[in-house]
Amino acid sequence: MTKSKHDGALKENEIVASIQTDVGCVRSSNQDCGRFIRPTDAAQRERKGVLAVVADGMGGHSGGEVASSLATEVIGRAYYSSNSTPVEALTESFDEANRQIYEASNRDEMLKGMGTTCTALAIYGNQAVVAHVGDSRLYLLRDQEIYLMTEDHSAVMEMVKQGLLSLEDARHHEDKNVILRALGTAAVVEVSTWKAPLTIHIGDQFILCSDGLYDLVEDLEIKEIVSATPDIHSSCQQLIDLAKRRGGYDNITVGILKAELAGTTQRVVRETREFEVVT
After folding, report:
1. CB atoms within 10 A of CB 161
2. Burial, 190: exposed, middle or buried (Cβ in 10 Å; 0-12, 13-18, 19+)?
């Protein structure tokens, strides 16, 4: 049900977005990939909304770059071509991306063992759904509070869940980047989704990022920068710059989607690697 702008709900055309990715200060190539898709067809937007995807690839030679790029491309195409509900379509699109990456890895010895983390957020009407594999993250900034909306599929997070590590200790553990799930590393992957869609409100900001950001920038710092910066493109750039000042040991990708009142701002989508408008 669509509500008026005065009661806190929003329509799909009130989402502004910015996705940026940076190679960082150490790596010679960028194995991250980010993509935002806003269909130009009104009926398609009404049915499936907008989609943001962030992926962090891994694999020797060019494998990681191939895996992350393939994931974002396949997920975007499969999500919008599916006749299923948004959450079902996201899961199906992850399964398809996993299949294609796995098969490509087996066909080409240079790509053997490649894989990628992936987090995808779809916003349609006043609802949001997520699909997630690996340790890329989604945060929600609402009413000056930040919430982690995904759970890392990592070795240290399993230790935290078992009470063997604190969250703070996990940040600095030597195995913090050992992930337990990835797209393309096995024939079948378990995809995590929310149990129910999230109702979103005007002013909500969703932050998608790779571990190149949150390994070096704490959650409260993310909150402070995004809260204090009205322009989401500037927020993304400030977060990347801060991670780079602290060493930039990995590729860094940040995407922000913001729910705003209709007519208050122009649609903004800026990126450094991937952007797509589909019909």
Report:
1. 10
2. exposed
Q: Cα separation of 96 and 87, whole Å?
A: 14
Residue 228 tokens, joined: 């204090």
Burial annotation 256-265 (CB, 10 A radius, 16+ → b, else e):
bbbbbeeeee
**Helices (H), ranges, the chain:** 42-48, 63-81, 86-107, 155-161, 167-172, 211-214, 219-228, 232-245
Separation CA 122–CA 197 (nearest Å): 10
- Six-digit token string for 129: 């759904």
Please give the CATH architecture assigned to the domain spanning 5-259: 4-Layer Sandwich (3.60)
Tell me what the mean pLDDT of segment 118-126 comes to: 96
* 24 close to 267: Cβ distance less than 8 angstroms: no
Which residues, in sequence order, are CB contacts of 1 under 8 Å at separation 6+?
none
Provide the whole-model pTM: 0.88
pLDDT over threshold 70, residue 278 = no
How many other C-beta atoms are found inside a 10 Å radius of the C-beta of residue 255? 27
**What is residue 59's predicted lDDT score, i.e. its pLDDT?**
87
